[in-house]
Design brief:
alpha+beta, 6-stranded mixed β-sheet, 3 helices, 151 residues
C-alpha cells in the first residue's frame, strides 16, 4: 500500500484482485468527516476490470463503479481513514500516476464511510460477479465528470 500520509488529490491506484484482474481508484479529496479530527481520504472506485494494470488515462476514460449487486444503485465513492488502516493488509494498492481534480468535495458526510480499506476490491468483485448473471447498473457517471465538475 502506498504511504497513506503522502496521499494527494488526484492520485491514481491500481489493485490486483484475487482472480488476477485489476481494478482502479482515484483520490478525489483529502479532508475530515464532520466534527472529527481524524484525516480521511475520499476515493472513487472505477468500473475498470481488466487483465493488465490500468494507466491514469484509462482511469480518466472510465466510469465510476455503481454497485447494484445489493439491489440498489450504490455509487462507489467512500472516505477512508488515513490513521486506521484496517483491511489495508489484505490489498495491494499501487500508485500509478496522478490526474488533475478541479472539483471540490468539502462534505464527506455526503458519501459512504468505510471502516475498512478492503472494501475497495470487495465491491468491485461483488459487482462483476453479479453482472455475469444479471444486468449491469443503469446509472453511469464518468470519472472525468467527477474530476472536473463533481457530482
Amino acid at each position: 500500500m502506498p504511504q497513506t500520509t503522502n496521499l494527494q488529490k488526484g492520485d491514481c491506484f491500481s489493485f490486483r484482485l484475487s482472480n488476477g484482474y485489476y481494478g482502479a481508484a482515484v483520490v478525489l479529496e483529502l479532508g475530515f468527516y464532520s466534527g472529527n479530527t481524524e484525516p480521511r481520504v475520499l476515493i472513487a472506485i472505477t468500473s475498470i476490470y481488466q487483465t493488465a494494470s490500468p494507466t491514469p488515462d484509462e482511469i480518466a476514460a472510465s466510469n465510476l463503479l455503481v454497485a447494484n449487486f445489493l439491489d440498489y444503485n450504490d455509487l462507489q465513492i467512500a472516505h477512508f481513514s488515513l490513521e486506521d488502516l484496517t483491511g489495508a493488509e489484505n490489498i495491494s494498492l499501487s500508485l500509478i500516476g496522478k490526474l488533475p481534480v478541479a472539483a471540490n468535495y468539502p462534505n464527506f458526510e455526503d458519501f459512504c464511510f468505510s471502516g475498512s480499506w478492503d472494501f475497495i476490491p470487495s465491491d468491485l468483485m461483488g459487482q462483476k460477479e453479479w453482472e455475469l448473471d444479471s444486468k449491469p447498473p443503469i446509472t453511469e457517471i464518468s470519472i472525468q465528470q467527477l474530476l472536473t465538475k463533481g457530482l
